[in-house]
Amino acid sequence: MLTQDKKLLLIGQVTDLSKIPIRTIRYYESLGLIKSSRRTEGGFRQFSLDVLTRLAFIKRAQNLGLSLEEIGNILQVYDQGQTPCGEIKEKLEDKVLQIDQQIDQLLTLRSEIKGLLSGWKNISDHHEDTICPIIQNTSNTTDSCPYMESNDSQSEQASNSSQLKAWFDAQQNEIEVTYLSSKNSYQQSGWGSTSERWQFARKLILKAVNKSGTFLDLGCANGLLLECLMQWAGEQGFYLTPYGVDISLQLVELARRRLPAFATNLVVANAFTLQRPMQYDFVHTLLEYVPENLHLEYLRRLLEQLVAPAGRLIVSSYSSRSRGIIPLDIETYLQQLGFQVQGSTIAQEVDGWILTRVAWIEKAL
After folding, report:
1. pLDDT single digits (tens) 216-235
2. Which of 29, 31, 154, 245 has the most crowded Cβ, counting Cβ within 10 A?
3. Which residues contact 260 (CB under 8 A, 6 or more apart)?
4. 75 within 8 A of 33, measured Cβ to Cβ
């Protein structure tokens, strides 16, 4: 029987020495960032000791903000016998420019917050429909806040804010009741059928992905879709760095456990009010995350604030046979809202039933 070579490490030993989870090591291997030297007769991977050097480099490069695609390109230079420090310098110079853009966005947010604080007026009245009316009744400027400046429409705004909050609360409750009622990973991502049909119904989202880059999934649930998209993209030669947002803390915690290497990229937030210090190459969303009368405002906000120049806003709609729900004709709907649709696709079963519709908008440079 073939035994383990003392100079080779099993994947569990690599995990113990590198402190990197087995799932992540396998993902790196699928992307070609690391390679196993051989397998035992039992089929277990064996790695040479230099895998620890590569993993340490990957971890350090990620901490500096480099994407897995960029890291892969750097390692290719290294594997050709060249020192890749020149390539790394160029990447880090680009990263500084990105950080400067993020700083500008943060300064804008800082200015907004200081504007709130400069006109702050303490109140003692208790309000059942708001926790802090000063910030909850404010939209971009302090002009709409009744506790900072008078406004003829303040009562209407407070009513709308209360109704909107109740709508989002109901959505969160429905999602948590439905998704968290099972330990099944697919059901925790809103899917009730087989893994094969899941792939057929979701993989087409990648048709909107035309390059490697950052991918933000709004309503990421337990992170299964992000994980699958990363894997499917890798099979097509693309590298996606995952980011996710969900309104449910419990679901985000599941996503963080599923994608531990990217746990800091997964946050709890309301997609409609989301503010992030960066923009993304791809932003994926469903329209059901906001009331219908806010669809246009929501999509415009995503395009302006979250989608990077030359990036794409990807909008999907899913069906449900059991509930008799057919997907929205996303392409036509987006056009009716005034958007120029770059492309669209559908996943249709042999009997004609449409599982998924996807359309995408490309942001100009």
Report:
1. 999 999 999 999 999 999 99
2. 245
3. 21, 23, 24
4. yes
